[in-house]
Amino acid sequence: MKKLNAFLRWMGVIFLIGFFLPIQSQTEKELLAQIIEEDQAAINALVLYPEDTRYSILEATLYPEALIKLENIQSQTGTSFRELLEGYPKSTQEIIWDLTRYPNLIHQLVLAGEGSRTGINAVLKDYPEVIHPRAKDAALNHFRILDKVDKLNHAAESAFTSLLMQYPTKTQKALNELIKLPEVLTLLTENIRLTILVGDLYKNEPEFVLHHADSLHLEVARQNAEELEDWKESLENNPQAMEELKSSAESFAKDNGYDDEYYEFDGDDLYYDAEEDYYEPQEEQYYEREVREVVHHHYYDYHYPYWFGYPHWYYYPRWRVYPYWYDWGFYFGSHRSVVVIGFPSYYFNHWFFYHPHHFYYYPNLSANYTNYYYGHRTSINSVTTTVSNWRSSNQAVITDRWMEDDGNLTTRFQEFGKFETDRLRYNRDRPTKALSQTEYIERYKKRYPDLAKSAERIKSGKTNYEEPVYKPRTKAPVREPDVRIPTVPKTNKVSPKTKRTTVPRVKKGTEYHKNTWEKSKTLKARGIKPSTQKRVIPRTKIRKSSSSKMTIPKTRTKIKTTRKNN
Q1: Which of the pair, 381 or 278, is modelled with greater confidence?
Q2: Share of the chain above pLDDT 70, in %
Q3: Is the pLDDT of residue 228 over 50?
Q4: How many CB atoms lie within 10 A of CB 202?
Q5: Each residue's pLDDT tens digit, 482-512
Q6: Cα–Cα distance between 96 and 84 in angstroms, integer?
Q7: Partners of 162 in the beta sheet?
Q8: pLDDT, tens digit, for every residue of 395-425?
Q9: Amino acid 515: pLDDT
């Protein structure tokens, strides 16, 4: 009887399992779909990696505890590394940080011995020449620091090796591959809920997940290409906005330092390592063809190691060094033509939108940003994210009607730029009597008629602010693209009658990160502001922006407007 009862209980369990598993599987897929919607930027970035990398990512999701343990090793090692350097001048810190990007370089310099110039030179034969001066400086003047850094790295690597031994061979291989992509490891741990759900579904239905990832890869790539093409077209169709983008980029160059200040290159015409990618324009009037030789500078390939993190002076995650024009989303081609290669980075957009005088100096570009946003409100890129967040932070005075493109949007942006600049100046001079946007517009409504009318609509309840479909996340994943820096083109005159011009080749899987993983709410929540430290400006001939000599008038004169009544 007992055996019969036991048998019946087991049959009941088996029946319940058989009944429950399909429901559970469906629930998992529905839950995953919900998480994917919430973390769309992270998903889009991950699926754009090549197939081999996507496979490594999925393999790692099977063991989320391994990712958490890796994060713990990184946290401890990174903290120790920063504490080791914090007592030294920033110039010394920059040298050491830079050396960490080159695999095994610090270890080899330590093995060469303190003060051994012969040993140092022997080591450096295997590394790019550009790093030689810094490596020699560090080895001769900061050997003890190098020795301690080497010990820290060795401890982290030993802990990593011990951790790997707990997992299957293919998982070990996957984690070894992902260590080379610290941005991905950070993304997976910061979105651990998503990671766990994907791993659980991948374990139960690997074919479904792989097929879904492949489909998303194609769809996101197509969508990104279309969105970027629309951004290019918006600039091409708005010459004033294009000119203001160039002018603002040069102003940005004055205000900010760049990673490439150490990595010197000559010349002003910038070209990517385009390999076979080029276009053949229609026949020109002259009988020459300009051949451009482009060389890849490999020192831009190296990233800061996962164990140490990225330098503290970057005020958002940045694992790689970049040429100075990277943040613009374009470079200057021949005759100062603009060659758009992507969206402006979040760094550039944050600088543009959170310094209100830019709206006064660059109203056409401001309007172009806004018009693009309203045409792509469900998109996830640096332009739509920035405009959405800026819109939210100014909802006390700006309505949807205010942002309509009725022919007077540029005038309203100039008025807003003056309003917010005046208000910030007022609050700076009267810190104990600071006024909010609503209070300031109420007191000085005659100076800013369009904003006053917009604020009055909000106050009276005649218009309600509606959040866009896409709500930016509050996290800031960290992947940024691999960027190749061009050298000076060498020109040879040959026939036939066409001019061959190189154009950049975009790696879709990595280029997309710069536009999706840098979120303004994280920076604003942390109260981070761009660095004011003066640094060397890049060696190209950056023209001073005319706006740098302008000041927003302090008079009470109204800004003239021909805006139609709404």
Answers
A1: 381
A2: 66
A3: yes
A4: 20
A5: 333 333 333 333 333 333 333 333 343 443 4
A6: 11
A7: none
A8: 999 998 999 988 999 999 999 999 999 999 9
A9: 40
In contact, 183 and 513? CB cutoff 8 Å = yes
Task: Report the C-alpha gap between 528 and 210 in whole angstroms.
Answer: 39
Distance CA 52, CA 208 (A): 17
Task: Please return the burial class of 129, using the count of CB atoms within 10 Å of its CB with bins 0-12, 13-18 and 19+.
Answer: exposed
pLDDT surpassing 70 at residue 4: no
Residue 542 has pLDDT above 60, yes or no: no
CA distance 24 to 538: 57
pLDDT digits (tens, 9 = 90+) for 518-534: 443 333 333 334 333 33
b vs e for 403-436, b when ≥16 Cβ sit within 10 Å of the residue's Cβ? beeeebbbbbbbbbbbbbbbbeeeeeeeeeeeee
Pairing of the two strands 501-502 and 330-332: unpaired
DSSP 8-state code for residue 39: T
Identify the CA nearest to 369 among candidates 381, 465, 474. Answer: 381
Tell me the pairing of strands 289-290 and 330-332: unpaired
pTM over the 0.70 mark: no
What stretch of H or E contains 233?
helix 206-236
pLDDT at 224: 84
* Of the candidates 254, 276, 314, 95, the residue with the CA atom closest to the CA atom of residue 322: 314
Hey, is 108 helix, strand or coil?
helix
Q: Which of 33, 519, 545 shows the shortest CA–CA distance to 253?
A: 545
Give, for 134, the enclosing helix (H) or strand (E): helix 132-141
For residue 494, give the 3-state DSSP assignment.
Answer: strand
More confident residue, 209 or 13: 209
**Cα Rg, the chain, nearest whole Å:** 27
> pLDDT tier at 217 (50, 70, 90 boundaries)?
confident
Helix axes 90-100, 64-85, angle to 10 degrees: 140
Query: Which has the closest alpha carbon to 420: 443, 445, 440, 392?
Result: 440
User: What's the confidence (pLDDT) of residue 463?
Assistant: 53
Q: Tell how strand 278-279 and strand 501-502 pair up.
A: antiparallel
pLDDT at 179 over 90: yes
Cα torsion 430, 431, 432, 433: sign: positive
Backbone dihedral angles phi then psi of residue 499, each to the nearest 5 degrees:
-115, 120
Does residue 463 contact residue 457 with C-beta atoms inside 8 Å?
yes
Q: 502 with 292: CB under 8 angstroms?
A: yes
Q: Which residue has the tokens 């294009």?
A: 242
Of 399, 416, 404, 413, whose CA–CA distance to 458 is shortest?
399
3-state SS, residue 517: coil
Of 366, 426, 430, 434, nearest to 402 by C-alpha is 366
Smallest CA-to-CA distance from 201 within 402, 442, 4, 35 is with 35
User: 34: burial class by Cβ within 10 Å (0-12, 13-18, 19+)?
Assistant: exposed
Place of tokens 């540029």: 410
Residues 97, 331: contact at Cβ < 8 Å? no
